[in-house]
Amino acid sequence: xxxxxxxxxxxxxxxxxxxxxxxxxxxxxxxxxxxxxxxxxxxxxxxxxxxxxxxxxxxxxxxxxxxxxxxxxxxxxxxxxxxxxxxxxxxxxxxxxxxxxxxxxxxxxxxxxxxxxxxxxxxxxxxxxxxxxxxxxxxxxxxxxxxxxxxxxxxxxxxxxxxxxxxxxxxxxxxxxxxxxxxxxxxxxxxxxxxxxxxxxxxxxxxxxxxxxxxxxxxxxxxxxxx
Length: 227
Prior knowledge:
mainly alpha; 0% strand
């Protein structure tokens, strides 16, 4: 496999920031709703070191999606535990979506024409790196939000679905939690097109909606970064 070391260096701060903001927002909303568990454990911070999960971070580099260490939450501290967990769960993906929307709008209204750009020859290094970081913020932000909203434990989507289901069905659904990671890895390694439909099609569609540019058009610009 041909690794582009320079691109990895550009990706690193984008990925670290996206994962850190995601977990920080979980902790922040939990604290707002009355649960300071994450705050007492040092998770209400933008320090990426305390949030990162090794496997989840590696997957963000090699697969375009991933996760960080789950923020500890005690729903007993919420006035409405189910509603509180739902709001805490959705805060992470929502934060990444906001980042992606901001990056997309920047591309749409600040850089109206990226067609035919030769990054390694026609733009300065600073502008090239900045442009690629914006594109990556858009793509990784959407990927992280969409991936985490898959309703399979322990992803945020499972917490959201649990909060929306009637109580009886929610308790039945929670029984799948011990098998969640096996289901996820099964989808990733054996799901083939199923996983593509779940993740990459929404990412492609939202990329174009937010930025006005086709996903593959933006990806081709990133490939101009020399190794």
